[in-house]
Amino acid sequence: MKLLFLVNGNAQNIFNAHNFEKEEFEILKIDEKSLATPKKLHKKLREKFEEVYFGCISIEFQRFIPFMFLYILFSKAKKGGIVDEEKNKIEFKLWRTILVTIPLLIFEFIASVFIVLFSYGYYFVWRKFKVKF
Q1: How far apart are the first and last CA of the chain?
Q2: Per the CB 3.0–4.6 Å rule, which of 3, 35, 57, 94 could disulfide with 49?
C-alpha cells in the first residue's frame, strides 16, 4: 500500500500522469498549512506504507518541498517523492535530504534570525537614539 498526501490538485490527474494504480494508494487530502503542523501527518506516516508521495498541481509553485522531504525522511517508508499533474516528479533521496536540504534549512534559519536582529537593532535602537555614522 502506498500513501498519497494530496496537497492540491486532482488525484485522478496525478494517477493518469504517472501511470499509478488508484487501488494501490490511500489518499489523504491535506492543505499547505498542515505541512507546517506535523501532528496530523506524523500519525499517518508512522503507519506501514511502502511509499509516501505528496501530490500537487505543479511542483514549480510548491513552497514546502524541503518539509515534504523531511516528512518522508521520518516516515517508515523512506521511499516516495513529490508528484504533480504535469508528469513532473522529484524522487526522495536520503543523501540529498541529509547533505543538501537540511543544511540549507539551517542556513535559511540562521540568515532569517540575523535579518530580524539587525532590523530590530536598526529600527528600534539606532533610530530611537538617532545614532549616525
Answers
A1: 64
A2: 3
pTM, two decimals, is 0.80
Task: Note whether 17 and 85 are within 8 A (CB).
Answer: yes
C-alpha cell at 29: 487530502
Q: Rounded to an integer, what distance in angstroms lies between the CA atom of residue 132 and that of residue 71?
A: 48
pLDDT tens digits for range 56-104: 998 888 888 898 999 899 888 889 999 999 999 999 999 999 999 999 9
Under 8 Å between Cβ of 5 and 64:
no
β-pair type (2-6, 25-29): parallel
